[in-house]
Amino acid sequence: MKKRLRMNSSLTEYLEGTLFIAPWLTGFLVFMAFPIGYSLFMSFQNVTITASSTTTEFIGWTHYRTILFENGSILYNDLLPFLRQALFMIPIIVIFALLIAMMLNQPFAGRTLFRAIFFLPVILATGEVVKEFLMQGEGELGFMAKYNVSGIIGAYLSPTWSTPLISILNSFVLILWYSGVQILIFLGGRQTISNSAYEAARIDGAGPWETFWKITLPAMTPFIFLNMIYTVVDLFTFPTNPILQRVRESEYGQYSALIWIYFAIISVFLALIFYVFHLATKPQRASR
């Protein structure tokens, strides 16, 4: 009798759990799993859409060969400049967010207001608003023209690398746009560090510079890693991303192949970040 009651109780818990996750599971299967699977299927098809029907013809790896080896303009013309720009933007965004979070963690009058101001662009500005700002030149830094920074950068770097760097500096509002969530994560991470560690360091004679390198930065390493992952995903899936804009213009089968190639590129970027994080934290793991 007791065994039967335990079984009924377990079955009830199982049914309750299933019932609670059923809406999420249904949404995932209908709106995520099926489109992803169908996208993979279409990447191997020649898709023809008419007013009355959609026909598909299996063509194997043709779309992938075309994009990667035969017609480079589909992917590489937009991808390579974007990757160079991303290589500059990712560290700039993470370092900028870390410095701002350190400042916003200090006690000063109006701290809550400044925290809200730095997060407001994430809430208020859409991709189109930012795009309009940039078109009107509102994101430029005044000292760029005043001190001819573009000319100095162009004199020391090749056009391949100077062009994306100047482009970032000329649209610096993007850094602010991309940094709101990272600042919030860094603020949360900074508050996990015990004040007693800083007090002990001050008693031992450590200054702000030493405490930053010996206490703050090592403790913030997991949050730096998290923010780098977030920044890569956010940067590579932003609506004004040139690759995603290119995807929308392509034929359906080719579009699907292109997006799967792009997915592989993002995965490589994330794998590199995991590898760098593994190397960076190796001494910390060894000292435990």
From TrEMBL:
<keyword id="KW-1003">Cell membrane</keyword>
<dbReference type="GO" id="GO:0055085">
    <property type="term" value="P:transmembrane transport"/>
</dbReference>
<feature type="transmembrane region" description="Helical">
    <location>
        <begin position="165"/>
        <end position="187"/>
    </location>
</feature>
<dbReference type="InterPro" id="IPR050809">
    <property type="entry name" value="UgpAE/MalFG_permease"/>
</dbReference>
<dbReference type="InterPro" id="IPR000515">
    <property type="entry name" value="MetI-like"/>
</dbReference>
<feature type="transmembrane region" description="Helical">
    <location>
        <begin position="219"/>
        <end position="238"/>
    </location>
</feature>
<feature type="transmembrane region" description="Helical">
    <location>
        <begin position="116"/>
        <end position="134"/>
    </location>
</feature>
<feature type="transmembrane region" description="Helical">
    <location>
        <begin position="258"/>
        <end position="280"/>
    </location>
</feature>
<keyword id="KW-0472">Membrane</keyword>
<keyword id="KW-0812">Transmembrane</keyword>
<keyword id="KW-1133">Transmembrane helix</keyword>
<feature type="domain" description="ABC transmembrane type-1">
    <location>
        <begin position="79"/>
        <end position="281"/>
    </location>
</feature>
<keyword id="KW-0813">Transport</keyword>
<dbReference type="InterPro" id="IPR035906">
    <property type="entry name" value="MetI-like_sf"/>
</dbReference>
<comment type="similarity">
    <text>Belongs to the binding-protein-dependent transport system permease family.</text>
</comment>
<dbReference type="Pfam" id="PF00528">
    <property type="entry name" value="BPD_transp_1"/>
</dbReference>
<feature type="transmembrane region" description="Helical">
    <location>
        <begin position="21"/>
        <end position="41"/>
    </location>
</feature>
<feature type="transmembrane region" description="Helical">
    <location>
        <begin position="86"/>
        <end position="104"/>
    </location>
</feature>
<protein>
    <submittedName>
        <fullName>Binding-protein-dependent transport systems inner membrane component</fullName>
    </submittedName>
</protein>
<dbReference type="GO" id="GO:0005886">
    <property type="term" value="C:plasma membrane"/>
</dbReference>
